[in-house]
C-alpha cells in the first residue's frame, strides 16, 4: 500500500524533530514572535510602532546618534531610519542637529517631550516584557540571554 506524502507542516515538524538546529530555529522564531507581540501591543497603545520606539529608546539611553549609525544599532536600513526620524520629528519626540565639526554629519537627538515620553512609558513597557518572558526563571533568563548573544555573534561572524 502506497502512503500519502505528509503535509508541508508535518514535514517541517518531522525535519525539526530530527535536526536540533531546525528545532532551535523554530522555537526561537516562535518565542520571538510572541514576546514581540506583547511588546508591539503595548507600543501601539502609545501611538508608535516598534521601530519608532526602538529609535526613541536608543536616543534616550545613548544620547544623540549620527543618522548613519542608528540603522546598525536598531537593525534597519538607512533609508528607513530617515523615514522613522521624520515621523518622530513630526510627533515632537526627536530632532535633527548638524554636527559642529563635520557639516555632512547629521545627528538625531531626543527632545524634552521625547524624554518625558520615555520616562513615563518605559517602566511599564519593561514590566510587559518581563511578564512575556515569565515562563522562565531569572536564572533561565540569564542563561538564555547569554546563549542567544553567543548564537547571534557566531551567526553574524559567519555571515558572508
TrEMBL record:
Keywords: DNA-binding, Transcription, Transcription regulation
Domain HTH marR-type: start-end pairs: 21-153
One Gene Ontology term of the molecular function aspect: DNA binding
Signal peptide interval: none
Coiled coil: none
Keyword Magnesium: no
SMART domains xref list: HTH_MARR
Keyword Ligase attached: no
Entry-linked InterPro entries: HTH_MarR-typ (IPR000835), MarR/SlyA-like (IPR039422), Tscrpt_reg_MarR-type_CS (IPR023187), WH-like_DNA-bd_sf (IPR036388), WH_DNA-bd_sf (IPR036390)
A Pfam short name: MarR
Protein name: MarR family transcriptional regulator
Organism: Paenibacillus oryzae
Gene Ontology biological process: response to stress
Amino acid at each position: 500500500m502506497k502512503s500519502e506524502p505528509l503535509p508541508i507542516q508535518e514535514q517541517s515538524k518531522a525535519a525539526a524533530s530530527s535536526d536540533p538546529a531546525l528545532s532551535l530555529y523554530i522555537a526561537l522564531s516562535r518565542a520571538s514572535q510572541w514576546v514581540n507581540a506583547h511588546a508591539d501591543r503595548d507600543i501601539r497603545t502609545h501611538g508608535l510602532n516598534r521601530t519608532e520606539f526602538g529609535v526613541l529608546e536608543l536616543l534616550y539611553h545613548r544620547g544623540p546618534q549620527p543618522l548613519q549609525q542608528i540603522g546598525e544599532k536598531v537593525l534597519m536600513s538607512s533609508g528607513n531610519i530617515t523615514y522613522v526620524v521624520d515621523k518622530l520629528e513630526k510627533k515632537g519626540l526627536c530632532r535633527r542637529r548638524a554636527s559642529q565639526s563635520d557639516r555632512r554629519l547629521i545627528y538625531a537627538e531626543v527632545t524634552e517631550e521625547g524624554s518625558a515620553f520615555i520616562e513615563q512609558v518605559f517602566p511599564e513597557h519593561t514590566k510587559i516584557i518581563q511578564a512575556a518572558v515569565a515562563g522562565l526563571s531569572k536564572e533561565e533568563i540569564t542563561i538564555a540571554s547569554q546563549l542567544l548573544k553567543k548564537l547571534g555573534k557566531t551567526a553574524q561572524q559567519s555571515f558572508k
